[in-house]
Design a protein that fits this description.
The protein is an alpha+beta fold. InterPro entries: Glutaredoxin (IPR002109), Grx-like_ET (IPR051548), Thioredoxin-like_sf (IPR036249). One of its GO terms (biological process) is cell redox homeostasis. Pfam families: Glutaredoxin (PF00462). GO terms for molecular function: electron transfer activity.
Length: 78
């Protein structure tokens, strides 16, 4: 099954950059939604993830808050 990965970020977030670098290093394709440039996307993110912070990553419906490489790889490898 193809992985659907969406990363919600902010343009000034250094942890978001770490997350994107991590995903890129494993050649993981993802869609990026920059929420500080899109207030509607921010509202939808909070409704879906129940969190106000970024980065938030959605992998096939599974949420990962912040930069958690171990959890990311566990979900991606299942």
């Amino acid at each position: 099954m193809k992985q659907s990965v969406t990363v919600y970020t902010s343009s000034l977030c250094p942890v978001c950059g770490m997350l994107k670098n991590f995903l890129n290093s494993f050649d993981i394709t993802y869609e990026e939604v920059i929420v500080d440039l899109n207030p509607i996307a921010r509202i939808k993110l909070v409704q879906k993830s129940k969190r106000l912070t970024v980065p938030q990553t959605n992998i096939n419906g599974n949420w990962v808050s912040g930069f958690d490489p171990e959890r990311l790889l566990t979900i991606l490898n299942n």
